[in-house]
Write a structure and sequence with these properties.
- The chain is α/β, with parallel strands linked by helices and 468 residues long.
- It has 2 domains: 324 residues, Aldolase class I (TIM Barrel); 58 residues, no CATH class.
- The chain has 19 helices and 9 strands.
- Helix 12 links the parallel strand 6 and strand 7.
- The longest helix has 20 residues.
- It is globular and about 60 Å long.
- The model has no long low-confidence stretch (mean pLDDT 94).
- Bound molecules: iron/sulfur cluster (2 copies).
């Protein structure tokens, strides 16, 4: 039965319908090729069309899906990969999610909320590594009010160490009421992320006890609708893969994206697809763990299903998996990631009683930047759209032909040049200079001359923060 909230939001996830699609959709190569063509034309797919892609088991047809995901990524996002870092500000939590070491019943977890001074130190360390974009993460607790989050954002923006500055702060936190979102929005945030974790109702109840805030499925599902209504039109959706059938979660995410698109004329800015990882005091159930092969399928299919949205691949995954999956549509990754509260100023190995989960890619920023360069990607620290007022148009790069040429590529090169100047190791500088040269040789947009001038100004005169 559909439940409804006072703001008119209803429960748009119909488990039975989605399960039937997963179970009953038959493999049909003619139809699949038509669907791929639609996606390559940058049209979002329906849930039923996505189910047709999920039904594919034939290896050749799967290869066609992977090829299409690669092509779409190139057409929509070019070869830049935007880099960010997560910053945990507090791990107190009133919820009791069974897969999380921060759950309230985990009495041995070391709890901490960063003081303002500690937050400043973390941001300085992140700036010293070359970061320009952060996502602030905290648990759901009465201490972490909208005012607390807004204040953290303001503190982050105020820190300037050397040539460092954080130019965009995103949020991953609990759902709020509309007043709460307005307070956080006013502090200058970018994306507000809420992951439903699992969209499957019964599984959701199993992992999120009903006597907790998070136990209310619909309040969480409605979280981003309230965010839009409060003026946050830049939102991120996600599911935690491994709690339930991954094919169900993919179809539910597509349903959510379509719901937002229908209601507000714009879908989610980003999609996240974290796979569950070991964490302190948690025994993982194996039944729904997603294999590497299925993970590759789900990423490629999500890319095709929601062509306009950014896709985030995090350091939960190992370097090998990140390397392999990146080409199927990923547009953002984190680098130099530390999950421990205060971890960016500590050189310790992961200490699981202090962290939410075990990470798979523990490499430092410079190593990741260098690898991206060697693999032909442009590591990008670009935040220009938010600062040039090109906001609220989530689909620019998707909708405007030439957007990548005009904005994403030159801004990626300019921010890379800044990184090389301020933070790059000699080997990274060498690889970066070579990549910039190569990119310039094939860059033909009318703003080429201006780009060359700006790059020279950064490199020779040390002028920072030039962008288009
Ligand atoms: Fe709290 Fe989030 Fe962990 Fe749930 S997943 S226990 S809400 S920190
Ligand atoms: Fe993102 Fe805009 Fe920069 Fe492209 S130009 S990377 S869309 S902020």
């Amino acid at each position: 039965m559909k439940r409804e909230l006072s703001n008119g939001c209803y429960d748009f996830i119909d488990d039975l319908y989605i399960e039937n699609l997963v179970d009953e959709t038959k493999e049909n190569d003619i139809m699949v090729r038509e669907i791929i063509a639609k996606s390559l034309n940058k049209e979002a797919l329906t849930v039923e069309e996505t189910a047709a892609l999920l039904a594919v088991t034939n290896d050749d047809l799967l290869e066609e899906i992977y090829d299409a995901a690669r092509t779409l990524k190139k057409n929509v996002y070019g070869n830049r990969i935007v880099i960010f870092a997560p910053l945990y500000t507090g791990n107190l939590c009133e919820n009791d999610c069974k897969y999380c070491s921060f759950r309230r019943s985990s009495s041995e977890t070391v709890r901490k909320t960063l003081s303002e001074n500690e937050l400043v130190k973390q941001v300085e360390a992140l700036e010293d590594a070359g970061h320009k974009r952060l996502i602030l993460v905290c648990g759901e607790h009465s201490k972490y009010t909208p005012e607390f989050i807004a204040k953290s954002v303001e503190t982050v923006y105020s820190v300037k160490k050397g040539n460092g500055d954080i130019r965009r702060v995103n949020i991953n936190a609990a759902p709020m009421d509309t007043e709460g979102y307005k307070i956080v929005k006013a502090s200058g945030i970018g994306t507000y992320q809420i992951f439903q974790e699992t969209y499957h109702h019964k599984t959701y109840s199993k992992y999120h006890p009903s006597n907790t805030l998070k136990g209310d499925y619909l309040y969480r599902l409605d979280g981003l609708t309230r965010a839009y209504e409060a003026g946050c039109d830049d939102v991120g959706i996600g599911a935690l893969f491994g709690l339930y059938d991954w094919r169900f979660e993919v179809l539910a995410m597509v349903t959510h994206a379509r719901f937002l698109m229908d209601k507000f004329g714009c879908g989610p800015h980003t999609v996240s697809f974290p796979r569950i990882r070991p964490s302190y005091g948690v025994t993982l159930e194996e039944k729904y763990l997603v294999s590497d092969a299925d993970f590759k399928r789900l990423v490629a299919i999500l890319r095709l299903a929601i062509p306009y949205t950014g896709m985030i691949l995090t350091a939960r995954e190992t370097p090998e998996i990140r390397r392999e999956i990146m080409e199927f549509g990923v547009s953002q990754i984190d680098a130099g990631t530390k999950l421990e509260l205060g971890g960016y100023t500590s050189s310790r190995e992961q200490e699981m009683r202090k962290e939410q989960f075990h990470i798979g890619d523990t490499r430092e920023m410079d190593e990741i930047v260098q690898e991206l360069l060697k693999n032909g990607y442009i590591p990008s620290f670009c935040t220009s759209c938010y600062r040039a007022g090109r906001t609220g148009e989530q689909f620019m790069e998707f909708a405007i032909p030439g957007f990548i040429e005009q904005f994403c590529t030159p801004n990626a090169l300019l921010t890379l040049q800044e990184y090389l100047l301020d933070y790059g190791s000699p080997a990274t500088v060498k690889a970066g200079d070579a990549l910039i040269k190569k990119e310039l040789a094939r860059y033909s947009h009318t703003n080429r001359e201006e780009l060359v001038k700006k790059l020279n100004k950064t490199k020779s005169e040390g002028i920072h923060d030039l962008f288009f």
